[in-house]
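Re: export button greyed out
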Amino acid sequence: MATGATKPFGLFRNMSAKIAAIPMIFAAMVVFFGGTIWTVVYSFTDSKLLPRTNWVGFEQYERLWGTNRWLISIENLMIYGVCSLFFSLVIGFLLAALLDQKIRFENTFRTIFLYPFALSFIVTGLIWQWLLNPEFGIQSIIRDLGWTSFAFDPLYNQDIVIYGVLVAGLWQGTGLIMVLMLAGLRGIDQDIWKASRVDGIPSWKTYLFIVIPMMRPVFITTLVIIASGIVKVFDLVVAQTSGGPGIASEVPAKFVYDTMFLRQNLGQGFAASTMMLLAVLIVIIPWAYLEFGGKKRG
Amino acid sequence: MVDATHFDGAHGPKPTRAFSRRNIFLYGTLIVVAFYYLIPLYVMVVTSLKGMPEIRMGNIFAPPVEITFEPWVKAWSEACTGLNCDGLSRGFWNSVRITVPSVLVSILIASVNGYALANWRFKGADVFFTILIFGAFIPYQVMLYPMVILLREMGIYGTLTGLVVVHTIFGMPILTLLFRNYFTSLPEELFKAARVDGAGFWGIYFQIMLPMSLPIFVVAMILQVTGIWNDFLFGVVYTKPDIYPMTVQLNNIVNSVQGVKEYNVNMAATILTGLVPLTIYFVSGRLFVRGIAAGAVKG
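Workaround output, generated via the alternate export path:
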């Protein structure tokens, strides 16, 4: 851990460290802390084009939860979130487990699975917009193969559009989860495998009952990373569907952006972003408590 | 199911039989999955090399009958966003102008922060650091508008400098963590010896820490270049149309409602935008993985 530089050297010696840390202190206190508080406070005003301090209590929140667009955003985020969590973890772990079998060309496979992660959400969204184009894309290909009643046009169908976004999101993000899981698997003591082999336990059982429980910290960290990424989903939707058809694929992050910068309804935007913050805190605080609270006790 | 008898950890000798049932299952699955990941890239490239008539007639997986580079030329130098018809090249150069200073400034500042946190801890440092890390998880939407006000007060809202400041601030949590962890892992004796020799804060940083930490600087660079190049939200909020980064311009070109959709030009433009991070990814290989894993797992 850190060196005990604090005590041997006096206040003055450490001045340059403090001066050097000014940008960090500024970012932490003014932007992250101050900015967050500012937004929460101004969510209780009726700010429109410009922020103003005309307090209206919880009015913005009441309006927000009565807005159809917001409700759809939340519903989409739920569907996207649950599916994305589940599939990223399962696919990510399975791929990592497959790659961990001492295979040839491991690097090649890993490179292939991870490359979409290097691409931006805008690029990802546009690729999948094209692949899911009902006239030319996957749907038309399968119809041409003879299955004429086949229908998979998520980007033109309000009911399933969010799953179209999900497919693209998973394509982009599962590689990262795989890498994290692989790092976790490599951290498992090899003796565990030897022991379970001696005992004749099949490897799927070893994974399920020994390895996965041992990888709990990796799973939790991954979960937090995926979850905080889900709440931020914005560019993917903008590029792939622009929130459409209609408002069927709106998400909270896009709702906030549109409300604040396109519809000039700042108060609504602040209230919506405060709700997003709340959602993230619900995930983060228990995690931080487990992760860091536990360490201090230990 | 997978046969356990061959599994003795990742680095051992390879199994001897090449065509066991296990291997067929294993490689079969991996190859199928690899196809799923590669097909979108393939379709993009193929589409961008076809003419529009061919796209309207054929299927998206078919290789081009007649290869044409016209869509690429058009995407680069003629595609329209609004009234500007000078193509994606404008966005490309904007992104270069945004990315280079943002990467340099953010890494410089974050490395000094990390160094101060690792070797020169002062009272309260942990509090600031904790808030900073929390900041990485707070949805940007919460801080978007306060940042607008801040930039406006500083007189740099809508300018390139403003965007550099934004990238520096929002890149700080992950980079500071990266550098702090790295500097903490360096042998402490080194730092102490330098102190005994009378080196100060900046002396140690420039003469000892910096030369010893080149790998982590490369990792940070990879992380930042891809992150900033791929950014959309900050670009669209904090800049004006004439300095929009490539991602924003790409989205405007492809999703513009006017005119006939030219799918081949759109795909060429999409590839062009993805080319920079993809090149970095394929060239840097393991370092890229290290970059994303460093922040994630250690966090």
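Confidence is low (pLDDT under 50) at residues 1-8 of chain B. The button fix ships in the next patch.
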